[in-house]
Amino acid sequence: MEYKQKIKRVVFFLSICWTGVWAQSEITFEEYRFRRDQLRELLPENGMAVFFSAPIRNRSNDTNYNYHPDRNMLYLTGWEEPHAVLLIYKNPQQDAQGNYSEELFVRDRDAYEELWNGTVVGIARAQEWGIDRVRNRKEFLDRKDHYTSFDALLLYEFQNDVRDKANDPFDLYALQKHFRQQINYPNELNAIRYDLYQKVRQVTAEGFVSLQAEIRRMARLDPGIEKDALLQNFLAIPKDGSQEELKMQSAYLLRQTHFDLEQLPKLMGQLREQKSPTEIDLLKKAIAISVIGQIEVMKALHPEMSEREIQGIHEFVYKKYGAADVGYPSIVGAGNNGCVLHYSHNELEQVNNQLVLMDLGAEYKGYTADVTRTIPANGRFTAAQRELYEVVYQAQEAAIAVAQVGTPFSEITQVAYAEVSKGLMALGIIEGADELRRYLPHGVTHHIGLDVHDPGAYEQLKPNMIITVEPGIYIPKGSPCDPKWWEIGIRIEDDILITTKGLVNLSAKAPRHWKAIEVMMQEDSVLREWKLPELEN
Ligand code: GLY
Ligand code: MN
Ligand code: MN
Predict the structure, then answer these.
(1) What's the mean pLDDT in 378-391?
(2) CA 78/CA 104 separation, integer angstroms
(3) Is 328 in the pocket of ligand 1 (CB under 6 A)?
(4) Percent of the chain topping pLDDT 90
(5) β-bridge mates for residue 503, sequence order
(6) Quick one: how far is CA 155 from the chain centroid?
(7) Which end of the chain, C or N, has fewer beta carbons within 10 A?
(8) Domains, in order of start, for the chain
């Protein structure tokens, strides 16, 4: 971080502590403004960044999923409504009112829309949000020849998942279509094509022939590449083609792809990976709620319960404490189901005497926890379950122990992998470390925040990051080991705050050691008293 930015950050934190915003646990307009200013600092000269709101996702027929706002737009503005565009400029722009460096295009209020779907913020009220310009989204469609004057146009790849809403000529579909036309965004740009475009853009005389070979190889796999005019032009340059011709071709390609899909995700990761005091506060709350869910289930669980009922207890607790949603589909898997990493069917009607893996997180004011506990349905680990649990526990302990400012993410993973390998070898389940991935096929750490897998550079730990540490062992039925280990899936996942004074395990209150779990499972549950009537049919 540059010196100037560091000073700004310190002044900002002092100011929010001073004004008592910390205690309110709300992201203020000032903080959103600060975040946009930080992004602006990072933008290249004469550059601009573009963000679109998330699409409304259809569930079936005329029913949609609850709206989930785009996390970057939320991070930068707090805006939670669909059909919006945010533009952030490096250098001031001018209109009749004077200079501005950012614009948000939004829907205006609409009585009919509000009758069905509730309040729309609208332009007049959005003017109070501290964004330089809030404009009607219709004006976005009037923007012609605006974007070519910028030296860098930073955006996220379009995902082609937006529906054209009937009777709304200014919907997200229209906004994106217009913008794509303006910047010559190829209709079928996909990740492979974009990667090749980037390579062409950066090609050197030495790399020229091998890049042509790579494009030919990809063209055989992907008809879209084969038909791509830009790439075909590039292939048409002869081997002994002059440097001049190569430069002209590259310049042509550059002009055609007058945008950059690589930088913006990196910049947003840079901003979002370290949390502000208010973000830490909100995450602590999401985690504390999730911990209560785990504890209440430990008290209430018995072998006759279904996976769905267990899920319901967690999610009831979340709502009880004001969490609007879950941060990701809840995972409750008993026995073999616990070996499916993102199992979310949760359909087993009786968990019986199996281990139950519960990976759930409350989403509180947009921020999500990610906590996993694995517990025996009858309150007692069997010897085999306990031996495997101990391996995961020791791996998690070892990985958490190295988590401090400066530790590379890769070290956390390596420490956990080494411990699990050692443990599995000691139990005779694998013969060498090269077999580890059969039973632990995932990474063991990631950021949490507005996304459960929050973006970041994933290089070294820095103060005010909140990461998970989540080793596991999964031994599905039929695995090449003693059948006594079969149908056991274990993951232990905690949410760890990194500070200059050391780490804080924010989910530590959910019992984690096998003995502590067994003790908690002896406790009385209020749910024992809650008797619901039998279904009549
Ligand atoms: N709940 C998904 C994960 O642990 O990463
Ligand atoms: Mn996780
Ligand atoms: Mn998880």
Answers:
(1) 98
(2) 11
(3) yes
(4) 80
(5) 498
(6) 17
(7) C
(8) 29-182 (3.40.350.10), 191-256 (no CATH), 276-528 (3.90.230.10)
Contacts of 374 (CB under 8 A, 6+ apart): 338, 355, 356, 357, 358, 389, 392, 489, 490, 491, 492
Q: In sequence order, which residues have a C-beta less than 8 Å from that of residue 276 and are 6 or more positions away? A: 13, 16, 27, 31, 464
Query: Helices 243-256 and 191-202, interaxial angle, to 10°?
Result: 140
Q: Is 370 in the pocket of ligand 1 (CB under 6 A)?
A: yes
CB within 8 Å of 512: residues ≥ 6 apart: 373, 393, 396, 492, 494
| Ligand 1 centroid – CA 392 distance (Å) | 16
State residue 181's pLDDT score: 92
Residue 135 host element (H or E): strand 133-136
- Beta-carbon contacts of 39 under 8 Å, excluding residues fewer than 6 positions away, are 49, 76, 88, 267, 268, 271
- Tell which one of 363, 470, 492, 495 to mutate to probe ligand 1, the residue whose CB is within 8 A of the most ligand atoms: 470
What is the rounded distance in angstroms from the CA atom of residue 117 to the CA atom of residue 456? 35
By the 8 A CB rule, do 346 and 330 touch?
yes
Atom of ligand 1 nearest to the CA of 360: 1
How many whole angstroms from 489 Cα to the centroid of ligand 1? 14
pLDDT at 204: 85
List of E strands, 382-434: none
Could you tell me the distance, in angstroms and rounded to a whole number, from the CA of residue 266 to the centre of ligand 2? Answer: 21
List, for residues 417-474, the tens digit of each pLDDT value. Answer: 999 999 999 999 999 999 999 999 999 999 999 999 999 999 999 999 999 999 999 9
The protein residues having their C-beta less than 5 angstroms from ligand 2 (an ion) are 370, 468, 470
Per-residue pLDDT at 20? 40
Cα 388–Cα 514–Cα 404 angle in degrees, nearest 5: 85
Question: Which atom, in ligand 1's list, is nearest to the CA of 331?
Answer: 1
Condensed to tens digits (0 to 9), the pLDDT of residues 153-209 reads 999 999 989 999 988 999 999 999 999 999 988 777 777 887 888 888 888 888 888
List the residue whose alpha carbon is closest to atom 3 of ligand 1: 370
Ligand 1 and 495: CB distance under 6 A:
no
Q: Could you give the CA distance from residue 53 to residue 388 in angstroms, rounded to a whole number?
A: 45
Distance from Cα 213 to the centre of ligand 2, integer Å: 39
- Model pLDDT, residue 420: 98
Instruction: Give Cα separations from 267 to 125, 149, 273 (angstroms).
Output: 29, 22, 10
Cα–Cα distance between 40 and 38 in angstroms, integer?
A: 5
For residue 487, the CA-to-ligand 2 centroid distance in Å is 21
Q: Cα–Cα distance between 530 and 313 in angstroms, integer?
A: 12
